[in-house]
Structures are given as C-alpha cells and as structure tokens.
Write a structure and sequence with these properties.
This protein is of the alpha/beta class. The chain is built from 6 helices and 5 strands; from the N terminus they run H-E-H-E-H-H-H-E-E-E-H. Strands 2-1-3-4-5 form a 5-stranded mixed sheet, sandwiched between helices.
C-alpha cells in the first residue's frame, strides 16, 4: 500500500492541507494495524502533521490506551459505532492532535457473524471542539488486503472531509 502512487499522492495532498490549516492528526487503528499512520508517515515532512498513532488491536488496548469503556465493548463489541466513536475521542484526548480518525472492523477471512460479517468496518472522526462523526462500511466479502485497503481509503476520506 505504501508503494501505491495514487494513495501516496492523496496522503501528500492531505498532509499539505492539514499543515496549511495548522492542524495535527492522530490515528486509532484496529483492523488496519497502523496502515493509515504508515501511509501518512511515508511522506517526508509528515511529522509536522502526524502527532501520533495508536494500534489498538485488542480490547484491552482500546481500554488502556484510548479509554474505551469496558461497558461499551461488552454491550456493543469492538466492531461497533459506539466503540469507533470512543476510539476517535480517546485518541484525541490522549494526544495533542486536533483531529483523530479511528478504524475498527472485521478484515477476515474469519471472525464474521451474521450480524457482523467480514468486511464490516466502523470509523470514527473526532475534532477538538466539534462533534464526533461515525461512518459504517460493509465492503462485502473480499480478501483481507482488499478490505484493509478500502478502509484506509475511507479513513483518508474522513480526514479530508474534516477540513471542509
């Protein structure tokens, strides 16, 4: 993914826009395992915008690093709107960033259920002094790599939209 010219160009434009706006970014990633942060930091000068990234693959990490309430995880599961929102808000609170994006989902090939199939991904976007937003995607069956790539693309889209 880091060698994808189109994604790199998009990430570079995003970083430039955030730098111009004087904003910093944090990521909170589960199913993408840090791919958004890796893409952004593949660009020279990204340290002016990327404040930090959290890879919170386990529920314990979501709670310990991002402050996701255990009750939220018990009631809704890791792959849910409340968890995605709590992850984004927690990343914002645990960093010096102005904007945080979170990703939690089921990349497969296993782990899906009838209610939460492989390809289900929830995103959160939190901005200082702003209301958190949620996005749900159901990418359908596909390879683990395809699902993760599409999630990275949608995370970039949320970060782009936060500038509007």
């Amino acid at each position: 993914m880091i060698d994808d010219d189109a994604l790199l160009a998009r990430a570079e434009a995003l970083l430039q826009a955030y730098q111009t706006a004087g904003l910093r970014v944090a990521t909170a990633e589960s199913c993408t395992g840090g791919l958004v942060a890796a893409l952004l930091t593949a660009i020279a000068g990204s340290s002016k915008v990327v404040e930090r990234g959290f890879v919170t693959y386990s529920n314990e990490a979501k709670t310990e690093l991002l402050g996701v309430p255990q009750e939220t995880l018990r009631a809704h599961g890791a792959v849910s709107e409340p968890t995605a929102l709590a992850m984004a808000e927690g990343a914002l609170a645990a960093s010096r960033a102005d904007v945080a994006v979170s990703i939690t989902g089921i990349a497969g090939p296993d782990g899906g259920t009838a209610d939460k199939p492989v390809g289900l991904v929830h995103f959160g976007l939190a901005r200082k002094n702003g209301e958190a937003r949620h996005l749900e995607r159901r990418y359908g069956p596909g390879s683990r790599g395809e699902i993760r790539r599409r999630a990275v693309e949608d995370a970039l889209g949320l970060l782009e939209g936060a500038l509007a």
